[in-house]
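Data deposition worksheet. Section B asks for the primary sequence of the deposited chain exactly as it was used as input, without tags or linkers unless they were present during the calculation. Section C holds the resulting structure in token form. Section D is free text for depositor observations; keep each observation to a single sentence. Incomplete worksheets are returned to the depositor.
Section A, Depositor: J.P.
Section B:
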Amino acid sequence: LNKVANKFQKTGKEISKVGKTLSKRVTLPLVGLGTAAVKVGKDFDEGMSQVKAISGATEKQFKSLRKLAIKLGEDTKYSAQDAADGMTMLARAGWDVESIMGGMPGLFSLAAASNTDLAIASSIVADSMSIFAMNAREAGKVADVLTAAANGANTDVTLLGESLAYGGAAAAAAGMDIEQTSAILMAFANANIKGSRAGTALEAMLRDLRKASEDGAISIGDMNIALYDSEGNMRDLISIMADVETATAGMTGEQRDAELGAIFMSQALRGVNVMLQRGTEDIFGYEEALRGSNGAAKETADIMVDNLGGALEELQSTLETLAIAFSDIITPVVRELTEKLIELTHWFNELDEETKETIVNWATLAAVVGPIIWL
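Section C:
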């Protein structure tokens, strides 16, 4: 009997070792993985619920949005959570579900091409499209124009977005489109006039031209320059400044300053001088390049992520997508357990004090006895 007892004791110790090893090397890592997956899934679902609430998506549309966010998170360096944040920005800007789904790929390309946060890129594109009254199908076009403008001048997408926020509305009101406006902002950026300063200068130029006009034209030297075409629409600023360039070509510096000073205030003169010094021919060249920029955002984005850093970022977003897939399996169980715990908590709270005290005392006893027995 003693021999049998000793063997049982030895076997028991070995089993205990196996149990501890499994707990450390299998159970705990699995618990950690499950916890991480649930956390990632929880954050993602909270973001997507926000998209659903703001966009007013139906259940079917919501499933499509969620599927697209996960797909983008799997295929790009940005995560599904980033996609949810971008969708939220577009929904806040008034985009409907179809517009959001159609515009997201272009926004991902712009964000990757400019190395910009996806939510910021979404905000810039949404605001720019609103300024120029563009429809959601043109999101890719806006992304291409902004990418090409940032690549072709001493600026970036964020600063271009800021410039458009300050001067874009005035340009759009004058009948200019995003290519013409961005071409001027490129010239400003190469003269170190960027961000809000560039937008303010552009707005001031258009304002001063209108104030100085008589019968729809301004006079510089012996030349009358029409601000409006035969149909009563304002000509684009580059064309107007090309005429100003011609009118001032033979003047001395003093004459030129006097003529321009009679039309433009100091705030606008910064932009006027840049355009005349750069030469409107170059700015027309910028505009032509922007009109031929189809595919610029994706092409630049592909180059930007074609390195180890891009691969690691894509791996991270792919792993997050995998965590969401795990979470989708685990979450129903966790949610059911959570609801049961909530019910149990409500039940406990509704008990009288004496019963609560009895339960707590038994729980305390169990908590103490367990470690004593283990020791």
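Section D:
The chain has a mean pLDDT of 84.
The radius of gyration is 32 Å.
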